[in-house]
Structure formats: C-alpha cells, structure tokens
User: Fold these one by one.
Assistant:
Number 1:
Amino acid sequence: MYEQIASNINRTRLLMGLFIALVALLGYVFGEMSGAGWSGLVIALIIAVAMSFASYYYSDQIVLSVSRARPVTKEEHPYLWNTVEGLAIAAGIPAPKPYIIDDTAMNAFATGRDPEHAAIVVTTGLLSKLNRQELEGVIAHEMSHIRNRDILLASVTAVLVGVAALLSDWMLRSFWWGGTRRRRDRDGAGQAGALIAVIALVLAILAPVAAQLIRFAISRKREFLADADGALLTRYPAGLADALEKIARDTEPLEAANRATAHLYIVNPFKDAGRRVSYLYSTHPPIEERIARLRSM
C-alpha cells in the first residue's frame, strides 16, 4: 500500500516536471522566433493564471450548482455525516460539507480549492446501494483527493495547458502572417534560423496535444493515489474495491453529469466512455486495473 502511494507521488512529480519543461521549451522557441525573449512565456503565464483564478476560487460553487447537488442535514443522513466527520479526523483535515445529488445512479466526487473549503458529493443511489464498508471506501477516496489538494494540482495543470495553447496559437499566427520570416531575414540566421522555424512549427502543432495528454496522465495517477490513500484511511482496501465493482456494474447514467464535470467523479459517469475514449485521452484509469490494485494490497 505504502509502495503504491510513493510510486504514484513520484510519477506525478515526473509528469509535472515534463509538463513544465515542455512549456518552458515552447516559451523559449517562441521567444527565439518572435524576438521577444522570455517575455512571451511570461505574458502567456499571466494570461493563463488570470483565466484560472476565477475557476480556482469559484468552481466549487459552480460545480455544485451544475450538478444539482444540495446540502444534506445530519438529521436527514446521520450515517453519511458521521462517516465524513470520522474519516476527516483520520485524515487530519476539517470535515468537508456533505452534499447529495438526487439521482439513482451510483457516483460521488469531491470539490473545493482547499481542505477548509471542501465538499463531498454523493448520489442517493450510492447511499442506497452500498453497504457501510463500501460507502466508507468511497468517502475515503474523495477525502484523499481533498487532503492531497488534487483540485489545486488540477488548477496548476490547467494553467500550464492554457500557457501551451496560447503560445502555440501565437506561433501559428506568427507563421501565418509571416512574422517569423521577417525575424529570420532581419537577423540573418540562415540555416540555424530555418531549423528553429521548423522546430517552432512542430511544437506549435504538437505541444497543445502533448500538454493535454500529460494533464490526463496526471489525473489518472491522482486517481490511483486517491484509491491507495483512501484504503490507508479505512485500513480496508476491499471496501473500495467492492464499491467500484458495484458502480461499474451499474448501467444507469448520471443525468446531472456533463463533459465539464465528468473528470471529478470517482468513476466516469458516462457509461460508454470506456468503449469510445482512448486510454491516453481518459482522465480515469481502467476501473478493472483500479480494482486489481486494491485487491493486491
């Protein structure tokens, strides 16, 4: 269990390092092509951070509203409240606010920019179809996302994707309007300038795709980490494994889900996603692999 947690953390760090290196390389090439130096990267970073600021601070309320989640009282669902409070104590964080989605499909997610402003959302279907140990496994998984600040990590990766997209768009526009040609003519770069232009064109086309692929890979690693960390909280990996099996067998789609919020859920709420979406473009690992890892703990 501890080995899986350490492995997922190290792989996340490696992916983040590759992500930052890709954006830095893109910024350097853009600077060479435009003559702006590193200022292009700085400008793109400022724009991306500004675009993500509102999302980071207000996305939890937006997500709760879009998902039609409502706060639940302790009198209405005392066991859910007690489970959230108990696992929060075990995790060493403030208790997140419990929310309910009135839907018979089985799913759950966590949201909030930090442990002090967090919420855990479960469907009524999940509450009615899971037993006590399975529900604890799901809540522990979501609690681990909050404790590990995965919402913050997702915001950082979104900023990096935004920077890569902006720089790529600027470079492609520069090629379109002939700005790079004028730059090469002015500097007399010759073959070196032509080589940089080719590299810039390839990066401008491929970098946004590569950035998204790295972002999805980080998301999958965080799911594995939340599984292992959640199992560590409950000391019973089979509880979450059994819950995932039940959720996987549930064929009912979640009506409140949409493409913008699907990555938040413990299992992709679109039941046909596994057949249509390539693993590389998926925010969730295959559920069979998640279950197998939990069974092996």
Number 2:
Amino acid sequence: MIETKPEIKCDKVFSVSENKYQKNEGGLRTHGYAKAGRPKKPLVSLITVVFNGENFLEKAIQSVFSQNYDNLEYLVIDGGSTDGTLGIIKKYDDKLDYWITEPDTGIYDAWNKGLHFATGEWVSFLGADDLIMPNAFSEMLSFAEQSTDQLDFICGRVEMYDGKTLLRTIGRPWDWNRFKRYMCVAHTGALHRRSYFQSYGLFDTSFRISGDYELLLRSGKALKAGFVNSVVARMQVGGQSNGNSAVFDEALRVRLLHGVTTPFWGRLHAKWSEIKWHLRRHLVGI
C-alpha cells in the first residue's frame, strides 16, 4: 500500500515557531530559519538516513557542505542510533537544516519521513556512508535548465568503493526498454523533482531493497529523465541492494507489479541476473 502523498509545497518562505519542536529534533529550522527557492537557484532538499553510523556519517556530512551549489537544504533522519551518531549530528546542529532521531521501520519509511520535512523543488538521497561530489547538483541543475523537457529525474555516474578501493563505476542514461528490465540508473545523489512525489506518491514501505526502482516505474515510459556523464557520488558497497541476492526477488516483484514482464520470463531474467551477480562478486568483489 502506497503511503499518503506529502502536502508541503516548495519554494515558499516560511517562519517556524521553535516551541513546536521536540527534544529529539534540531537544526536551523527549529531555531526559526528556513530556506526557499530563488531565481535560477531552485532549492534542493538532500536527505540522509542513518542508524548507528558513527564511523562514517561525518564524512558524508562534510561532503554535502563542500557542495558548490549554494541553495541546499540538508536533512538527516536518524533511526534512533545507540552509538555516537547523535553526537555527530548535534555537532552540526547550526549547519543542518533539520534533523530528527526516532525509530523507523526501514530506509523507505525514513525516506518518506524526510520527504515530509523537505521543502525543495528537487529532492536527493545520500547514504550515510556515501559522498556527494562538489559539483554534483550544479551540473545536474544546469542540465535541467537547458533541457527542453520539464524533467522528473536527473542522475549521473556513481563510483562504488570497498573502503578506499574503487571497484567500478555505475550509471547510464535512462532508457525505457532497458529500465523496464532492471534498475539501469544510479539512484545515489540523483535529483527527483518534488512534483513527481506529489503525482505518484511516496516510497512503498513494503519493499526493503527495490523501493526506489518501484517508485520510478510508476510513471512508466512517461518518465522525463536526464543524465549527466560525470561522477556525482561515491558509495560504499555493502548496502541492501549491493550485498544481498534478495534484490533479484524484489526487482521481479516490482516488474510483475507494474506489468512489464510475465512470471515465466521475469523469473528467467531474475535467475540469469543473479548468476551474473555471483560471478562478478567472485571475480571482482561486487
């Protein structure tokens, strides 16, 4: 079942009352400061979800504050961490636009929570152990401004690391014939126009791995997607979709849900994809 659509409108200057916030929240917004879109500078809301990420969260935060795009709203959604994560978040209380710490039911539940608090025209998601490149948003938004279409989604290339070792680079232009077979675009650091969520709803929390793929399949071949041929993010392997063969079962469920395959051909494709995944992990580690 799809979650209720967010109602917050973007690009509005608004004031906030500090006393409506709870002790498990913080950031500039809770102190009465809020951001809005500007001419030629649409507001970007970047959401990071974290749980017990004391060993890597700070690097992700620092990469965000190294962006050369200057109209950025950064939100951190913590799932109730029990290590030193909250201390790191509070260290940046005067720079983060909003943060909250409370239990959630998984990454898509947490992303939906972030969407509820986001106010930008564009929304992006960055893993707590990933890094966003300094020029990522300026490049993608420049592409959007020059496009003749009103794009729903813009992505780039993403480098995949195991520690400090670069394993491979993923990401290619969106193509419907390819996309209906598998998630061919890189989601980390990509931009989603907020109106897409208002039209198609939030992430389906019944998925644990392939909810981003399912979300983008809802619009079918009508998705207006753009691509920049440069690295926009670096991500560490080992996330749900990188180290879990269950991703093939979920991807099949997504494709059957949207009618882009049949049970027979879908299972055949899923099995072949899993075989290739195992071979790649054996040969290059991912």
Number 3:
Amino acid sequence: MSDARLETHRQRLVGLAYRMLGSVDDAEEAAQEAFLRYQAAGAPDVDNLQAWLTRVCVRICLDRIKRSAATQEVYPGQWLPEPFVDAENRAAIDETLSMALLVGMRQLSAAERAVFLLHDIFDYRFAEVADILDLSADNCRQLAVRARRKIRRPERAPRSSSEEFDRVTGAFLAAVRDGDIDRLRDLLAENVRLTSDGGGQVSAAPRPIAGRDKVATFLHRVFAPARKSAVLRETPVHFNGAPGVLLTAEGHSPSAYHLEIDDGRIVGIFVQRNPDKLRRLLRSACG
C-alpha cells in the first residue's frame, strides 16, 4: 500500500473515531489499532479495504464507549470534546465536527452514535451500515431516526457560511473586548446556551448557562479582569470545522471559544479550558 493511500485511510479513520469519542488521542489510537489488526491478519487482499478498516475501527470505538459506560466514569463538570484541528482543511466549514453536534451525540447509545455517523455523516447506505455493525438495515434505520430525534438534527442540517462565521465571531470578540454588554446581547439568540469545560483543573461554569441575559452577564463579568489589565490576547484558530479563537490573558488560563451560529445569531458558545485538551490547539496556534 502506498504512503499516500495509507494516509488517506488514516485521516478518514481518525475523523470517524474522533466524532465517536471526542478525543484526538483516542481517535489516533483507534485508527492505529485498526491498521495493526489489518497487518496481524496478514494484510488480506480485500475487495474494499476502506470498508474493512472502517468496520474494525468502529468496533474498537464501540468497545471503548462500552467500557467507559461500564466503569461509570464521572467527568468533573461539563464535558466538551478536545478541539480538533484539521491540518488539511484549515479554512473549511464542516458542521459535522461542530462542538454542538459532538456534545449532542453524547446523549446517544453506542449503536445510535455509530449508525448516525456512518449514515448521516459518512454517507454509508443502511445496508452497508448494517454489515459493519452486524445489524439489520431496518434496525439501523430505526436507530438513525432515534438518534436524530435525540439531538434534534434533520438528516441534512443547514450550513453556515464562512463569511457569516467570520462576521459574527469578529463582532462577538469586539463586544467582549470593549465590555459592550448591549452589543453582546444583540448578537445572542434568545435561547443561547454557554457550556464550558475546565476538566476539574481550572475554573469553569459547573452547569450550562442558558438565556440571552444570563449568558451576556456571565461573559461581561468573566472578561472584566482582563479588560482592566488590558492584556487580553486573541489568536484566531480554525478548529472543529469553523473559525474559533484562543483567548489568553496574563495570569489566566487560556480558553478556546467555538460558536454555534444560526441565522446570524449565536445560539451556542462552547468554551474549552481544560489544559489537557488544549495542548494540541496551543501548539497549532503557536505554529
């Protein structure tokens, strides 16, 4: 197998595994394990290597999800996925990588998550999904319907443009930088929701904050110390399929902001502050 073909398969597997697990390290390990199993099987001359590797990788991810559920692991505070930087598509808008979608998928069972991703995101036919998961096609259809209902997502979700992301993100940053709470309220949807992840290591809101006024007031207070010291630094960085920003201030832990935008207004704000999950993003921003 050529290096180029190998890398193409690897990137696809990492993308699939990341969407299932929400961790770049775990996704890369799952993809690597799939290749090791292929080699351990004698590198068989299969008709469709992509399907073979996908089947194995999905099963590895399902095992990880089930083991985590069996041990009843409790995450400290609100969980957000590790930021994902796609080096090959740094400027592309990809809502299948959005924080909102990945957080929504945490509500799904392992089987629902796998069916939803394979059919709705990676465009496998239900017959192919059924073969990968050893289920019937009808069962897969039912799982997909349940998954969409739980995360309230249509089979083909609308897409925001890159220009809209840039415009709204820029206006958001200007409002918090200037302490203009009225302008900030104007950018927020009535039902906006803010979720932050500190991983139990740094400060973060212990529960999601919902509603325009509550979110605006929270952000105004959070950024007040940085505004007074005049050292708030903004580093644009593209992650999870959309323009985002890394905010740093002297004496404060860095925060990565990812916005969910609908019809020109912010409906979701995701703030990753967990130092363990920011390592890759910080390296990317510095590079």
Number 4:
Amino acid sequence: MELRDLKSFIAVAQHGSFTKASQQLFVSQPSLSKNIKRLEEFLQVELLERSTRYVRLTDAGRIVYEQSKKALLALEEIPLLLNDLKQIHSGSIKIGIPPLIGTLFFPELARRFHEKYPNVQLELTELGAKRIWELVDNGHVNLGFVVLPTNETLFQMKPFIEDEFVLFIHENHPLAGESEISISQLKDEKFILFSDEFTLHDLVIQACKDTGFIPNIIYKSSQWDLIIELVSSQLGITLLPKSIYKKQVNQQVKIVNLTETLRWNLGIITKKDSYLPFAVKEFLAFTERL
C-alpha cells in the first residue's frame, strides 16, 4: 500500500469527483484512477461506486476513508513530535477564526504574540463559528476561536473574552432615545442578522424566541460592517456585541442597552486528545496571560 494511493482515494472521497480531486493533487485523472485501482487491488475490495453522474463510497470505502484520514494525520504528526523534542520556537499555527472576532480582538493579540515569537507564523482561516468547529474536528486547523457553548465531548475549551449584546439602531428610530429596552419590544421590527453559518445568527433568534416571538429577518450578511451600513440606511435593526460599536464609525447608528442579559462568550477550542504542537501550546498559554 502506497501513501499516494491513500491520498488519491481521500481526495476523491472528499470531493465526490475525480476531476476536482485531480485538480487538488495536481495529477492527471488517469494517474488518479490508476492509484485508486491499485489500492482496491491491494485491499481486495471495491472502494468507490462509479457512474457518469456521481462517485460514491461503498460500505468498504467508508471504512477505508475514515481509517485513512486517521493514518495520514498520525504520519503528519511525526515532524511535529520531533520539533517538540528539539524545543524549537518556530513553525506555524493554523487558526480558524470568525471574521468578527478577527476584527475586534485578534490584531492586538497577534501583534503581542509576534513580538515574543517572531519566528512562528499564524495562518488564518476566516469562517463562521459553525464551520470552525468542523475545521478543528477534521484537523484542518490547530485551534479555533468560537462562540460558546461548544461540544466539550469533542473539544478542549479555554475561555477567551466576554461581551454583551446591545441594540444597534438608526438615530431617527423611535426607540433610539430609550436608555434601555426589552427584546420583546422588537417583535414588530425588521432584523438584519449574520448569515446562518454564524452562531450569532442562532443566538439572536433564540433570544427573540425566549421572549415570545420569531424575528422578521429581511437581510443576512457575513460582514458586520455591511450589517451596520444597512442599519444606517434605516432598513432594519440588529443585535450585536457592544464591542463592535467602538469599531464602527457611522454616526447615524446608535446603541441601546437591553434589559435582558444576553452574553457573547468566546473561547478557544482544540480537538480533544489530539497532539498539540509546541507552538500551539505556547499560543494557548500566551492568551491566558493577557
């Protein structure tokens, strides 16, 4: 059994396509097919169900796919373990981070970390927190910044920062002059929220349901600054963490405190029982000292 055959099989299984897999691996489709055929002959099972319309895993293919991923992860850990043995303060850390957390908190954290560890590279993947969970679980990133709570049976979690939600509203809105309001007072308002892949989306909807209504969502976006601009255009209102207000510069947008306590708790997760490179351990320890 050859390593390249396993990598070829995993790529086809993940993409469900020989074409996309060959593009990812930079090999020709005939070479890719040959690699997988050789693996099937070695294992004496059929791994893929092929047709002109799709490529699917067989029952045996699903078993080989899951075990192959584990085997490759174990092989990739060998140089990391050796680096730890040598105590080298270098390397790279793959970090999954939602764009909002990246904007609000990460630049200062990265600056301080770089001052202490200038030879460690930080590789960022910016996606919604729900996707970050998947990346950490699949081993595609070393750690992820997420909105809590999280699945603590799968992940080790370290608290990072707490904030609270407030109402973002146009200055001419009738509620803009209030010192605080209840979420229930927003039941007839038009909401502008983060997209479904962001946990902030679910948090706001659940907070509205807890006070007796389902919000009327008219716009969704993956960008907090676009959400603010839509509010400034008087197209709706939104609930966002208070720390965003310091970053936004639109003077037509005001904030109003909520009578309910709606918290935004952030944490850093790593996959439970997985090996953490030395640089990752240092990064986690560094965040605790801030």
